């Protein structure tokens, strides 16, 4: 009997051509193969050769096709013709748009450049946008790190020269235990998924520390459901247990950290708490071989952790003594802290014991000789195979900087940073704080700023204060309020500009920052600030220029809109000067390029800045004859020289005799073509002898200079004891000429401890914890990175709205049932939202997915869309300032050291409500400059 089966082509030709570029559906920057048919995008798959994702593609990445074709895409430049917020616009030409922008900006530059505040959101071209702002001359530039994760980044740089994600990662192939703290699924998404998969396949244990058990925490082998804001206490208690048990790597601490550096102990000395230094300014240790003082980096020096030094009546002790005193005290005993953390003492001891067992009883070695910066030869590399990863969950608190520092110190005392099986840096990191620039803020009308805006301060002398000790920046970064604000404070710009403190501005220029919705605390308040008028009937913030690819909630509040392209229509460079795509074993960078041409009158924002910069005559953007220097962003990427031999892209540069090389080299006119032919990226492997111990490894230092990460070798030791923090603390004690204002002295003294400490989140003392007993959090879902995701026709099917998840105890206490709604109230406001039950939650924590709720009328969605009716934002409950305390001041709802927005300090109360038809507050619909999308999104590619 013959089978009569239809002939099916099981491998139809899906594309005529594959174009390889870089995904931008989230910030991970995976390599993608874009399949083209008849000149249109047919589908997207992962690039198997790419260092970041090795072919893996997530739901977001494959849904890029819907992002590229989204009905909400802006179509042409727009000029506001109605009142701000009305959504009344007229389309104008690019010539009109650029003329208008130039007319607005040129007088500001000529007279008072600080009156321009230029801030960018999820921008991946910060080394370029900052150059533009520097050329303009305004001190008011930053990207979104201040409300994202600056605590993690800054604590990492100040302590070890880098933290996680772009800076470092667990040694996934050798680690035996990975602890993740406060990691949701948005940052470093595919690499973590792949890493966890590989580690688990080898039998490594994954431990998730998070109040919420979803995503990575759901697949973890063990889950610690900690109370929000107490991670630092838990970590310091584990440090207590490890130090008491003697389970710390003393050799590593002595050689590679400043635990051995001598600290002035004289209570009467102006230098108390600071390092003892030699005439060259180098911190001193005691050499075990000689028993004498020696510079930390002296050839052959063997630093001692125990001996003290007394001279001229002053005792100097190694920082290790101070660590032992602080962390072995009963204050950090598990019995003293467990309750506060929502854990038991036994649980803390168990976690510490497990770390110790894996680090020391299961130590590994790699037979790779290496030589350290003191010239000592080591015949192998010893690994402590415990590793850590952390993200916003521990950093978005008012104690986040010190919590992140505590986590780094935990890794360091175990000897598990830059050793096999531990945490590994990704080139061009590690880079200590001293290798970064200091912040600059000197304004000269008509001229460029005196240097880069953002950097790392090393004491009060580096603060950006004017002659009256007032902040030079509109966001008050690098002021006494937040001295180490390495990423600026984007979340304070509109609030400060509206209040006119420290001064009023003329123009707010923003890129990809949805400030009137999910990118602001106090969302309703921000909308009001953007539309408020003064007594003369003029807007308090006189002009707003905004660039975005989509009709977001922010569009209605701009006066001039510069429409950006989608990520498949543009050039980008993911640069070593910025946030590169490197792996621990390889240095790498990448590009995006227009795999499709825009079908609308839109332009890549960076190309627009090239032209606007030329029209304004900004240094770096014009030739000597005044003509435009870079035709567009692609031209800049190819031709810009940052330092001799160093450009935005490190790959395919020209060496001697025109030979292609990576790292340093001359401009290569064909560089972008070379990237395209290579799959959109460039990569060079780290040599084997440089694989670990990078900050201390002489071979790595030489390789880093050869590649251009820095110009001279600069080995360093980890800064467990952070002297810059001590200098600020000393100022608050009255030492030095630059003094903080009286009202900030106590806060600086209490929080800027040079050794990591824990203090309660500020909201705990600003609101009554009995009245607001519940912690409220948000997380980004794995399927959506930004508010962009909520318009995506495919991704909306995964998350159409975002219930508020309640733990069993709260669910039962209030008698909630499926389908119920709740009123949630903070000290700042109330929301009405649908609820759902989740058992795997800290008992005092409620939470929801972030950025799913939409304002009606935005993103070309139907006003009946579930996102705009059942979806909601927690942001309405959070204010950028803490509630009044009766001292006449409103304190910032931020980390007092870095200024990071303390989103996760929020406390609320909850009650059942009968209002069940619409999430509240329900803002009136926005009028969008683009029409609502069709009921069904359909198009055909090919025949
Ligand atoms: S993880 Fe991010 S960059 Fe990678 S495929 Fe998914 S959306 Fe794209």
Describe the structure.
The protein is α/β, with parallel strands linked by helices. Among the domains are: 569-601 and 620-685, no CATH class; 768-882 and 906-913, Beta Barrel (Barwin-like endoglucanases). It contains 25 helices and 36 strands. The chain is globular. The mean pLDDT is 95. The structure holds iron/sulfur cluster. The site of iron/sulfur cluster (SF4) has 13 residues, from helix 1 and helix 6.
- Strand pairing plus helix content: what structural class? alpha/beta
CATH class of one domain: Mainly Beta
Alpha carbon gyration radius: 27 Å
Numbering strands along the chain, what is their spatial order in the largest sheet? Answer: 5-4-25-24-23-6-7
Give a quick account of the main beta sheet: strands, pairing sense, barrel closure: 7 strands, mixed
Topology, number of strands: 36
Distance between the termini: 37 Å
SS element count, helices: 25
Give the CATH architecture of one domain: Beta Barrel
Estimated helix fraction: 10-25%
Shape: globular
Could you tell me which ligands this complex binds, including any ions or cofactors? iron/sulfur cluster
Low-confidence stretches are: none
Give the percentage of residues in beta strands: 15-25%
């Amino acid at each position: 009997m013959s089978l009569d089966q239809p002939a099916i082509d099981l491998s139809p030709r899906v594309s005529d051509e594959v174009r390889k570029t870089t995904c931008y559906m989230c910030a991970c920057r995976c390599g993608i193969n874009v399949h083209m048919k008849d000149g249109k995008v047919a589908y997207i798959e992962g690039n198997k050769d790419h260092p970041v994702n090795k072919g893996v593609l997530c739901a977001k990445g494959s849904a890029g096709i819907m992002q590229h074709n989204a009905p909400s895409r802006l179509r042409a430049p727009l000029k506001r013709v109605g009142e701000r917020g009305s959504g009344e616009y007229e389309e104008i030409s690019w010539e009109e748009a650029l003329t208008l922008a130039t007319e607005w900006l040129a007088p500001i530059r000529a007279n008072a450049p600080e009156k321009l505040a230029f801030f960018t959101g999820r921008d991946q071209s910060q080394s370029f946008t900052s150059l533009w702002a520097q050329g303009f001359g305004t001190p008011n530039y930053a990207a979104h790190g201040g409300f994202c994760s600056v605590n993690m980044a800054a604590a990492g740089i100040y302590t070890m020269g880098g933290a996680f994600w772009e800076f470092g990662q667990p040694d996934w192939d050798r680690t035996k235990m990975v602890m993740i703290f406060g990691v949701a699924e948005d940052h470093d998404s595919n690499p973590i998924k792949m890493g966890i998969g590989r580690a688990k396949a080898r039998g490594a244990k994954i431990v998730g520390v998070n109040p919420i058990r979803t995503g990575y925490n759901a697949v973890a082998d063990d889950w610690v459901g900690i109370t929000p804001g107490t991670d630092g206490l838990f970590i310091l208690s584990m440090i207590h247990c490890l130090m008491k048990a003697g389970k710390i790597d003393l050799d590593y601490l002595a050689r590679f950290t400043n635990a051995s550096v001598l600290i002035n102990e004289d209570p009467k000395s102006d230098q108390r708490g600071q390092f003892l230094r030699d005439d060259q300014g180098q911190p001193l240790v005691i050499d075990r071989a000689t028993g004498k003082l020696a510079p930390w980096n002296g050839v052959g020096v063997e630093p001692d952790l125990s001996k003290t030094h007394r001279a001229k009546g002053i005792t100097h002790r190694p920082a290790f003594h101070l660590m032992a005193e602080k962390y072995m005290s009963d204050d950090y005993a598990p019995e003293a802290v467990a309750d506060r953390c929502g854990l038991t003492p036994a649980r803390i001891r168990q976690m510490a014991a497990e770390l110790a067992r894996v680090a020391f009883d299961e130590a590994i070695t790699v037979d790779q000789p290496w030589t350290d910066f003191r010239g000592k030869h080591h015949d192998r590399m010893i690994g402590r195979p415990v590793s850590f990863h952390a993200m916003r969950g521990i950093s978005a608190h008012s104690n986040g900087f010190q919590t992140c520092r505590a986590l780094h110190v935990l890794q360091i005392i175990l000897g598990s940073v830059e050793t096999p099986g531990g945490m590994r840096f990704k080139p061009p990191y590690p880079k200590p704080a001293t290798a970064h620039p200091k912040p600059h803020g000197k304004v000269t009308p008509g001229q460029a700023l005196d240097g880069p805006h953002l950097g790392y301060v090393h004491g009060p002398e580096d603060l950006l204060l004017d002659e009256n000790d007032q902040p030079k920046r509109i966001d008050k970064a690098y002021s006494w309020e937040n001295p180490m604000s390495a990423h600026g404070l984007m979340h304070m710009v509109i609030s400060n500009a509206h209040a006119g403190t420290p001064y009023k501005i003329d123009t707010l220029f923003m890129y990809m920052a949805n400030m009137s919705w999910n990118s602001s605390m106090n969302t309703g308040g921000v909308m009001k600030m953007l539309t408020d008028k003064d007594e003369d009937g003029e807007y308090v913030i006189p002009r707003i220029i905004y660039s975005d690819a989509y009709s977001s909630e922010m569009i209605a509040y701009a006066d001039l809109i510069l429409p950006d392209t989608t990520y498949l229509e543009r050039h980008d460079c993911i640069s070593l000067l910025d946030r590169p795509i490197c792996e621990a074993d390889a240095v790498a960078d990448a590009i995006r390029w227009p795999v499709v041409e825009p079908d609308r009158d839109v332009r890549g924002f960076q190309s627009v800045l090239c032209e606007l910069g030329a029209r304004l005559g900004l240094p770096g953007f014009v030739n000597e004859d005044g003509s435009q220097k870079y035709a567009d962003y692609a031209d800049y990427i190819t031709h810009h020289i940052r330092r001799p031999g160093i450009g935005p892209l490190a790959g395919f540069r020209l060496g001697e005799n025109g030979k292609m090389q990576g790292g340093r080299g001359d401009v290569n006119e064909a560089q972008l073509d070379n990237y395209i032919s290579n799959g959109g990226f460039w990569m060079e492997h780290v040599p084997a002898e440089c694989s670990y111990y990078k900050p201390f490894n002489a071979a790595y230092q030489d390789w880093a200079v050869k590649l251009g990460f820095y110009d001279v070798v600069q080995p360093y030791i980890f800064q467990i004891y952070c002297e810059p923090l001590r200098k600020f603390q000393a100022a608050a004690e009255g030492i030095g000429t630059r003094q903080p204002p009286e009202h900030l002295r106590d806060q600086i003294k209490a929080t800027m401890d040079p050794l990591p400490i824990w203090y309660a989140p500020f909201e705990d003392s600003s609101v009554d914890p009995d009245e607001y007993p519940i912690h409220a959090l948000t997380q980004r879902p794995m399927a959506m990175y930004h508010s962009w995701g909520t318009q995506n026709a495919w991704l909306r099917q995964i998350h159409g709205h975002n219930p508020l998840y309640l733990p069993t105890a709260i669910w039962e206490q209030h008698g909630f049932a499926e389908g119920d709604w709740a009123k949630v109230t903070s000290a700042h406001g109330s929301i009405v939202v649908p609820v759902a039950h989740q058992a795997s939650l800290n008992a005092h924590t409620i939470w929801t997915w972030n950025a799913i709720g939409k304002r009606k009328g935005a993103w070309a969605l139907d006003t009946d869309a579930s996102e705009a009716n059942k979806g909601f934002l927690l942001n309405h409950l959070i204010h950028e300032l803490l509630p009044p305390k009766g001292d006449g001041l409103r304190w910032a709802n931020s980390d007092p050291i870095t200024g990071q927005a303390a989103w996760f300090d929020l406390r609320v109360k909850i009650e059942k409500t009968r209002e069940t038809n619409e999430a509240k507050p329900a803002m009136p619909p926005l009028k969008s400059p683009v029409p609502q999308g069709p009921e069904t999104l359909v198009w055909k590619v090919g025949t």
